[in-house]
Amino acid sequence: MSEITGKTIAELRDGIRGGHFSAREVAEAYNAAVAAARLLNAYTVETPEDALAAADAADKARGSGELASLAGIPLGIKDLFATKGVNTTAGSKILKDFKPPYESTVTANLRKAGAGMLGKLNMDEFAMGSSNETSTYGPVISPWRRQGSNVGLTPGGSSGGSAAAVAASIAPGVTGTDTGGSIRQPASFVGISGIKPTYGRCSRWGIVSFASSLDQAGPMAKSVRDCAILLEAMAGFDPKDPTSLAAPVPKWEAGLSSDLRGKRVGIPKEYRIDGVPGEIDAHWEQGIEWLKDAGATPVEISLPHTKYALPTYYIIAPAEASSNLARYDGVRYGLREVPEGGNLDAMYAATRAEGFGAEVKRRIMIGTYVLSAGFYDAYFTKAQKVRALIKQDFRKAFERCDIILTPTAPSAAFGIGETTDPLAMYLNDVFAVPASLAGLPAMSVPGGLDGQGLPLGLHLIGNELDEQGVLNAGLAIEERAGFTARPERWW
Fold first, then answer.
1. Selected catalytic residue, list 7, 78, 222, 263
2. Secondary structure of residue 118 in the 3-state scheme
3. In this structure, is residue 383 part of a structural domain?
4. Which end of the chain, N or C, is more open, meaning fewer C-beta atoms within 10 Å of its C-beta?
C-alpha cells in the first residue's frame, strides 16, 4: 500500500489543496492499486482514464484557486448506479453489457463535486444478498483473513465490492446502497464506516431498483468524517425522484462533534437476542461505555415489534422486487433469449430463466406469491400494517432518547460458502432491518476485533433527518475505539 492510498478522503482533499501532492498522483496511485488487487474481484469494470481526467481537471482548477469539495478524489461506484456509457449491470447477467445513456443523480452530484471514478464495484445480484455470493461475476473476497487461516471470507453484501475496496485501500471512498442493511453489514464485516441516511436524502433516480420504498444510497469510507464529506456531496432534493426530500443538505462535516453531553442513548432490550455470540454482546457493552465517556446517558428503551421486522421485510422487499424486476423481459435492453419457434411469452420465460440467478428468482417468487389475489391481504397488507407499528415504536423511543445503539450484525464475517441456507443468510440483517423499514438514518462504525481477529461494528440509529446526531455519536465511538487495524496484504 502506497503512502497515498493509506490516506483518508479528508487527508487527500487537504493534501491536494495544499500542494503536497497532485490529484494526478492520487489517481495514478489508486489506479495501480486497483490493478494489483484483482484477486479480490471487487471491481467489475475499471475506468482509470475517468479517474485521471478528473484529477487533471482538479490540478488545473487548483492553479486558479477554485476547487470543488471532492476535486481530484477518485471513488468506486457500486454497479447499481447508472453511469453514462459505462457498464451498469446490477451484478446480473440479464443486464449484461448494458451501458446507460444517462447518469444517476447521485453520481452526477459526485462529479459536480469534482470526483473521478475508479470503476464499478461488484455486488450481489440486484442487491439481493448478504455475502456478495449471488453476483454473476462471482463473489468478492474480503481482504481480511481469520487468524491462522487462509479461508476466503465474505465482505458482506450487497455492497460487498464497495466494502472490500475501501478496506483494501483500492478506493478512498465508495457509494453503496442499503435496502435492509447492505451498507451497514458489509461495513461491519471489513472494519470501515458506512451510513444509510434518512429515506429520501439521496435521490434514487438512476439507481437500479430493488425495493423502492426501502432503497437508499449512502457512502462507505475509512472514517466518520469521510462519510460526512461524501454524504454532503451525494444528498439533495431531486425533482426526478418523487420520494426525494425537499430538505436542505446540512454541513455535516462542519457540524461534527464527539461531545455528547446531554444526549441520551437508547439501548433496546429486544435486541438482546438468544444465540448471538457473547463477543457481540460484550462489544455492545463496550460501545455503551464509550458513549458514556463522551457524555451520553444510557437509557433502556423498548421496540416491541422488533421480532416482526425481519419477516415483515421479507414480505415487503420481495413484493416490491417482483414488480420492479418485471421490466427485464429481453425486449428493450440487456439479455435476450429467443427459443427457436417461440412466441413472445416464450422469449420472456427464456430470458428471465437464463438471466436471473437463483436468489433473485427466489425473491421474485416470494413477492409474486404475497401479491397474488388470494394472499395480498393475508401477507402484504398485514406486513404494511406491522411496518407502521415498527415506525411508531421508533417515534415513541425517540421521545426518551436521542440516539440508539445496537450491534451491527449478529456475527463477524463468515467464510464464502459456509452459509448456504437462505433463511440463515437472511438473519444477517436482523439488527439492520428495523431502521430500514422506518426509513431512519443509521450507521456502522468499527469498534474492535473478535477472537479470530476479524472486525466488529457498532450500529447507531437516529431520528428522521438527524444524520448529524448519528455522525457525532459515530465520531465519539471512533475516537474512543481507536480502531486502526487493517488487513494484512495477501492478494
1. 78
2. strand
3. no
4. N
The average pLDDT across 451-458 equals: 97
Nearest to 27 by CA among 58, 72, 57: 72
Residue 136 corresponds to which cell in the numbers above? 454473476
pLDDT for 48 equals 98
pLDDT digits (tens, 9 = 90+) for 314-367: 999 999 999 999 999 999 889 999 999 889 999 999 999 999 999 999 999 999
Please, are residues 318 and 372 in contact by the beta-carbon 8 Å criterion?
no
Q: Distance between CA 423 and CA 426 in Å, rounded?
A: 5
Q: Is 182 a catalytic residue?
A: yes
Q: Which residues contact 427 (CB under 8 A, 6 or more apart)?
A: 310, 410
pLDDT in tens, 248-299: 999 999 999 999 999 999 999 999 988 889 999 999 999 999 999 999 999 9
Question: Among residues 92, 142, 158, 193, which one is catalytic?
Answer: 158
Q: What is the structure's pLDDT at 279?
A: 95
In a domain, 122, yes or no: yes
pLDDT averaged over the chain? 96
Active-site choice (130, 169, 182, 411): 182
d(CA 472, CA 474): 5
Residues 57, 63, 66, 72, CA torsion sign: positive
CB atoms within 10 A of CB 269: 12
Terminal C-alpha separation, the chain: 11
78 is catalytic: yes
Q: Count structural domains, the chain.
A: 1
Helix 224-234, helix 9-17: angle, nearest 10: 70
- Residue 239 belongs to a domain: yes
Backbone angles phi, psi at 45, to 5 degrees: -140, 135
Identify the sign of the CA torsion 337, 340, 343, 346.
negative
Of 473, 488, 470, 483, residue with least CA distance to 195: 470
Report residue 171: phi and psi, to 5°.
-165, 135
Residue 208: which of 175, 230, 249 has the closest Cα? 175
Using CA atoms, how far residue 27 sits from 60, 300, 337, in Å, is 14, 47, 40
Q: Which domain holds residue 24?
A: 9-262
Judged against a pLDDT cut of 60, whether residue 1 lies above it is answered with no
Q: Would 408 be classed as within a structural domain?
A: no
DSSP 269-324: GGG--TT--HHHHHHHHHHHHHHHHTT-EEEEE--TTGGGHHHHHHHHHHHHHHHH
- How confident is the model over 218-241, as a mean pLDDT? 98
- Give the residue among 325, 319, 316, 313 at the shortest CA–CA distance from 126: 325
Q: What is the CATH number of the domain that holds 62?
A: 3.90.1300.10
